[in-house]
């Protein structure tokens, strides 16, 4: 039997390495041992930190990701398989985001470190622009078509716009009625009744295009702007908790046989942005059409669902996505449930005009709509 290393015949004691199958004579046993595989080293060898390696074993050693030295002692493997030696863990400050040490940032009290790539991927508050390292809030992606990340501090101390319902970024406008407005909504706010005639013309033009038989152009309608707190006082049900954006009122004087005097009045919430104000007015004009065309309606979900459906179609048509999405995802009765009821009806009947005609038909047949004298009272929230 020969020695695997010196190829001489083995006389006397020897060592057999089971894993490699080597047989090493007593003379070769005095050779240095490879620190990786534990076998004696003969011929070409590599040294690192006083340790000896076979050339092939040395090339297989892993390197520290920071200092590039061979990992011979203790080291840490991070979740992304980054390996860092113990020396670098002591010398360099860890990234505040991923926890891996940042090469070039010495450990000093009161300082922070980040990898550039981590900063690019990090969650940042859209309001204060700071990195988020704790609980945070997401604005509803389905409603706003984007996820805005807001840190807990900003979420708790920043007011919400009462018109677009987003946390206010930048300066805040505080109305006397206790409502807050962001810059965008404030710039488009309808605060003067002088703007109402133009808004009415635009609303009726859209309604006539949506349903040509609407017939509202010749009906005299009084209009006004009032704070939301006073809108609630116009209702018969003054305990209502829903914030109102508009109210339609109908008053009439009649004899036993006919109406001798009637009036239609629409009040809109003061401060609504132009597009939202248009949507609310279209909602209330739909109530006016219901009253004039169908008479007194009893089914509240049908009353409000129909008007909300028309408003929703308008907001979709002008691509006012935030307000349209808010209506679509409402779950309350009668607005949210009524809207879904009419969206399903439109899907079955294939056209908006068919929805209006179906309501007129049911009214004439007395199904769900009763042939009572006109006197409907409708509200919009």
Describe the structure.
- By secondary structure, the chain is α+β, with helices and mostly antiparallel strands.
- It contains 13 helices and 16 strands.
- The strands form seven sheets. A four-stranded mixed sheet has the order 13-15-14-16. It has a two-stranded antiparallel ribbon with strand order 1-2. Strands 3-4 form a two-stranded antiparallel sheet.
- Helix 7 packs across helix 9 (274-294), helix 9 crosses helix 10 (300-317) and helix 10 runs antiparallel to helix 11 (321-328).
- The longest helix has 21 residues, at 274-294.
- The N and C termini lie far apart (99 Å).
Low-confidence stretches: 367-381
Strand order of the largest sheet: 13-15-14-16
Instruction: Kindly provide the name of the CATH class of the largest domain.
Output: Alpha Beta
Radius of gyration: 39 Å
SSE pattern = EEEEHEEHEEHEHEHEEHHEHEEHHHHHE
- What's the end-to-end separation, in Å? 99 Å
Number of strands: 16
User: In what range is the share of β-strand residues?
Assistant: 15-25%
Major sheet attributes: 4 strands, mixed
CATH level-two architecture of the largest domain: 3-Layer(aba) Sandwich
Could you report the average pLDDT, rounded to the nearest whole number? 82
Structural class: alpha+beta
Helix content: 25-40%
- Fold-level CATH name of the largest domain: Collagenase (Catalytic Domain)
């Amino acid at each position: 039997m020969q020695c695997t290393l010196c190829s001489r015949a083995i006389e006397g004691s020897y060592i057999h390495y089971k894993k490699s199958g080597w047989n090493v004579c007593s003379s070769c046993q005095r050779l240095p041992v490879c620190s990786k595989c534990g076998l004696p080293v003969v011929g070409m060898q590599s040294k690192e930190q006083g340790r000896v390696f076979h050339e092939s074993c040395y090339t297989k050693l892993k390197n520290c990701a920071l200092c590039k030295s061979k990992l011979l002692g203790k080291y840490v493997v991070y979740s992304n398989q980054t390996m860092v030696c113990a020396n670098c863990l002591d010398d360099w400050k860890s990234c505040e985001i991923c926890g891996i040490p940042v090469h070039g940032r010495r450990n000093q009290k009161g300082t922070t470190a980040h990898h550039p790539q981590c900063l690019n991927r990090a969650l940042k508050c859209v309001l204060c622009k700071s990195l988020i390292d704790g609980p945070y809030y997401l604005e509803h992606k389905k409603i706003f078509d984007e996820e805005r990340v807001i840190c807990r501090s900003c979420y708790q101390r920043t007011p919400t716009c009462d018109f677009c319902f987003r946390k206010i970024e930048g300066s805040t406008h505080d109305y006397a009625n206790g409502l807050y407005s962001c810059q965008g909504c404030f710039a488009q706010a309808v605060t003067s009744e002088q703007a109402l005639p133009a808004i009415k013309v635009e609303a009726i033009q859209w309604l006539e295009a949506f349903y040509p038989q609407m017939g509202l152009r010749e009906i005299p309608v009084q209009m006004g702007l009032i704070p939301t707190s006073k809108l609630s006082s116009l209702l018969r049900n003054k305990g209502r908790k829903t914030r109102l954006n508009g109210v339609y009122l109908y008053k009439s004087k009649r004899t036993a046989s006919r109406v001798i005097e009637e009036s239609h009045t629409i009040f809109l919430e003061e401060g609504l942005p132009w597009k939202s104000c248009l949507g609310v007015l279209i909602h209330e004009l739909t109530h006016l059409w219901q009253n004039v065309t169908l008479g007194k309606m009893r089914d509240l979900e049908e009353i409000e669902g129909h008007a909300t459906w028309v408003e929703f179609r308008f907001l979709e048509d002008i691509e006012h996505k935030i307000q349209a999405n808010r209506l679509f995802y409402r779950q309350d009765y009668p607005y949210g449930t009524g809207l879904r009821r009419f969206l399903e009806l439109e899907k079955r009947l294939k056209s908006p005009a068919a929805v209006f005609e179906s309501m007129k038909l049911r009214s004439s047949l007395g199904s769900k709509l009763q042939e009572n004298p006109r006197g409907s009272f409708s509200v919009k929230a």
